[in-house]
Specification:
By secondary structure, this protein is of the alpha/beta class. It contains 15 helices and 17 strands. The strands form 4 sheets. The protein has a 6-stranded mixed β-sheet with strand order 2-3-1-4-5-6, with helices on both faces. The chain has a 6-stranded mixed β-sheet with strand order 8-9-7-10-11-12, sandwiched between helices. Strands 15-16-17 form a 3-stranded mixed β-sheet, with helices on one face.
């Protein structure tokens, strides 16, 4: 089993920078503004030969019960409870502050193994701050620069020593992996395939490993649509900060979950406002983080506030999902507060399909994320959309369909000449993508491409699934022969002088 490490400290001491350094990716938003991180973020990290689970936490702040600061502190407390060891990070350039002293005392009472780390030690200005930390009662501070990667070797030794002193094997995961490799090797050596053995079946290991990966599901929408509330209901825990304030979520938080045996990685994202209204640098970083979450997701839930109805910004978000080619469903939250339910749903679908004809037939579910009523219909709808997103059509069936579609409605001519589509085939899934060869691919009108797309969706039962068509000019197989023949004749005339 991997051990779990939590990074704690007051705001703006570099916790997210250290988190990104250890996970090897820029997962957490980093900015000079204090209090950027609000929810606890989890990731798989490594330091030399150590492999462990890592929590990035909100800055430790005190606040009255029910306030945002109090909810952030509860998230930090949950991260501490779920960890085997923690790092208390402080800013050595600023020295030890009263807030550092307060939370050092809090950590001593928690009775968790603690490694004290002095961050921002890339300059000599931090020396006094390092000496001050001995008074915190958490042992010798480790001098580190998370931004520049200095001091990681000393952090590695401190983590290993602290874990071993507390009876935790830091290399347990490596030993388990080595034992698994040994057993697999013994099984392979003992297994023999004889000629004519019809019971042998080949398994694609790469495909098997792909099937074992969790489904990446992003929940997106405008601020205060209920994205964090939905994930908390699905996971049945207060995993994310929720409240009446809009814009509580600032960066995309991934949460591991399981639905009927299917592993799912849920991504809670920051609400997307109109670009013209985004003036704050931090909100711009949050918006970019949300767009990246859509880009790397496999399925996306566009969460709409049913009370407010659909707005222009919802259409902008839908457009981005369609352009990225993701499996998608529409979810209407706060459905219990809607009076005219039939009319609300009809108006919403009319607006969506007028703006994006390719969304005709997209799955729509209605629920209340707060009470959970109707949420059980969301995952079956996602599963169906995901299966359609992975649809594969054989080359023979596709070309039969292509011939019938072209005969049913012939392609219009452009400048007196008509483009012809010879044949095609599906070249990838996720989303279904088809390559077709034409003598004049640039002259195929967009309206005709939409016609073909609508026919394909209808004939093969792919409602609400993004479709990609790629048209390519087919090379003339006789072109090269003509050129060779001309050059041959030219060479003969030169030799004979005629």
């Amino acid at each position: 089993m991997n051990f779990t490490l939590a990074i704690l400290g007051r705001p703006n001491v570099g916790k997210s920078t250290l988190f990104n350094r250890l996970v090897g990716k820029r997962l957490a938003i980093v900015d000079d503004t204090p209090g950027v991180t609000r929810d606890r973020r989890a990731g798989e990290a490594s330091l030399s030969d150590l492999r462990f689970n890592l929590f990035d936490t909100a800055g430790l702040e005190e606040g009255a019960e029910g306030t945002l600061e109090d909810r952030m502190r509860q998230q930090t407390q949950a991260a501490l409870d779920d960890s085997d060891i923690c790092i208390m990070l402080y800013d050595a350039r600023q020295g030890v502050t009263p807030m550092d002293e307060h939370f050092a005392a809090w950590l001593r009472r928690a009775e968790k193994p603690v490694v004290l780390v002095a961050n921002k030690c890339e300059s000599h200005k931090a020396q006094d701050g390092i000496y001050e930390a001995y008074g915190l009662g958490l042992g010798e501070p480790i001098a580190l620069s998370a931004e520049h990667g200095q001091g990681l070797a000393e952090l590695y030794r401190a983590l290993v020593d602290t874990l071993q002193e507390n009876g935790i094997d830091p290399y347990a995961h490596e030993k388990e992996e080595e034992e698994k490799r040994r057993r697999n090797k013994e099984a392979e050596d003992a297994f023999e395939i004889e000629e004519g053995d019809m019971d042998y079946e080949f398994h694609d290991a790469e495909m098997d490993s792909e099937d074992e990966k969790p489904l990446r599901l992003a929940i997106v929408g405008r601020p205060n649509a209920g994205k964090s509330t939905l994930i908390n209901y699905l996971t049945q825990q207060d995993r994310l900060i929720t409240g009446p304030e809009a814009g509580l979520t600032r960066d995309s938080i991934s949460v591991e979950w399981e639905w009927e045996g299917l592993p799912v990685r849920l991504f809670d994202t920051a609400g997307l406002r109109k670009k013209a209204k985004i003036t704050d640098k931090l909100e711009r970083l949050s918006a970019n983080d949300t767009l990246r979450a859509i880009q790397f997701a496999e399925a996306v839930v566009l969460l709409l506030d049913a009370e407010r109805g659909i707005e222009k910004q919802d259409l902008k978000i839908a457009e981005h999902i369609v352009n990225e080619g993701r499996a998608m469903i529409i979810a209407l939250n706060k459905w219990d507060a809607v009076d005219d339910r039939l009319g609300t749903k009809k108006r919403l679908l009319d607006i969506l399909t007028r703006s994006f004809p390719q969304l005709k037939g997209v799955k729509v579910v209605q629920f209340s994320a707060l009470t959970g009523k109707g949420v059980q219909f969301m995952m079956p709808a996602i599963e169906e959309a995901y299966d359609l997103w992975n649809s594969r059509i054989s080359t023979a069936r596709f070309n039969e369909w292509l011939t019938d579609t072209l005969e049913k409605h012939s392609m219009p001519s452009v400048n007196g000449r008509r483009a012809k589509v010879r044949f095609g085939a599906q070249i990838k899934t996720r989303p279904p993508t088809f390559l077709m060869f034409s003598n004049r691919p640039d002259d195929i009108p967009e309206s005709y491409k939409r016609y073909m797309e609508n026919e394909l969706v209808r004939d093969f039962g792919l409602p609400g699934t993004p479709i990609r068509f790629v048209f390519k000019k087919k090379d003339n197989p006789y072109e090269g022969r003509r050129r060779e023949k001309k050059e041959s004749k030219r060479g003969k005339r030169w030799k004979t002088g005629k």
